[in-house]
Amino acid sequence: MGTPTAAPATIRVPFHLDGHLPGLEVPLDTGATVRPELPPGSVWERLAALHAAVADEVAGVVATGGVPLVVSGCCTTALGTVAGLQRGGVDPAVVWLDAHGDLQTPQTSTSGYPGGMPLRQLVGGAERTGPHRLDLRPVDERDVVLVDARDLDRPEAEFLATSAIRRADVPGLVDLPLPDRPIYLHVDLDVLDPADVPGVMYPVAGGPRAEAVAVALRSVLDTGRVAAVGLACTWGEGVVPGSAVREVAAELARVAGR
């Protein structure tokens, strides 16, 4: 096994959903910033425009043999990242680390929060405005690993009970056989225990500490098959990432060859 040899490119997307966060502090130095003017319309239409810009940036990096590392303020950016990989000829498996399932639909969610739906959208369900505009091909559930997800709503648990999506805790990811194909590695930093990530929007008690998450990430990155990384910094403006968050981010950057 080895680390990727292609040059990475760190892309900053300072948005939470369709809301621009110019003061969002992130734990990595970034290169390009994606900041399109979003059209009027529903949140889904605005997200479709944002994710189209992300997909363009990611596809450009892939075309040069690079490894996109997309740093954003929420998990929905994953739709643009995976669409960009697909445009570049890469059909990835997904390894998704998150305190939550992100498997809701507009019909099952009591809040209607789009940030609770992106993984379900990636596998072909939930709201389809963005996926259709992005020409996003659904990822086969058999090629998805959901890691941690210690806070599942009942509809998400019911969906997983009949889904081919595999689950693991953070330590279990180290020895888990992964799909033998390129990988999109997604990390919502709320996967960490709240003690390590103060200020996160939706904290969930009982999470793993930074060292354990870093070890798990290393095991995935060391496959040499990670084609893109998504890092969701799910906090608001004015929150300064602490040392634990920077440890996890540094693992992603170091093993990706930066």
Coarse morphology: globular
Oligomer: single chain
Instruction: Round the mean pLDDT to the nearest integer and report it.
Output: 94
Stated plainly, the CATH topology is called Arginase, Chain A
Helices, by number, come to 8
Strand tally, please? 9
Residues in helix, %: 25-40%
Largest sheet: 7 strands, parallel
CATH architecture: 3-Layer(aba) Sandwich
**Class derived from helix and strand content:** alpha/beta
Run of helices and strands: EEEHEHEHHEHEHEHEH
Strand line-up across the major sheet: 1-4-9-8-5-6-7
Our Rg estimate from Cα atoms comes to 16 Å
Fraction in beta strands: 15-25%
Q: How many domains, in number, for the residues?
A: 1
Q: Distance N terminus to C terminus?
A: 18 Å
Output the keywords.
258 residues; alpha/beta; Arginase, Chain A; seven-stranded parallel beta sheet; two-stranded antiparallel sheet; 9 strands; 31% helix; globular; disordered N terminus
Fold and architecture overview:
- There is one protein chain.
- By secondary structure, this protein is of the alpha/beta class.
- It has a single domain, classed as Ureohydrolase domain (Arginase, Chain A, 3-Layer(aba) Sandwich).
- The chain has eight helices and nine strands.
- It has helices at residues 43-63, 78-87, 118-122, 129-134, 154-161, 170-173, 210-221, 243-255, and strands spanning 8-13, 15-16, 19-20, 67-72, 93-100, 144-151, 166-168, 183-188, 226-232.
- Strands 1-4-9-8-5-6-7 form a seven-stranded parallel β-sheet, with helices on both faces. A two-stranded antiparallel sheet has the order 2-3.
- β6 (144-151), α5 and β7 form a beta-alpha-beta unit.
- The longest helix is centred in the first third of the chain and has 21 residues, at 43-63.
- The model is unreliable at 1-7 (pLDDT under 50).
- Keywords: Hydrolase, Manganese, Metal-binding.
- Pfam families: Arginase (PF00491).
- Belongs to the arginase family.
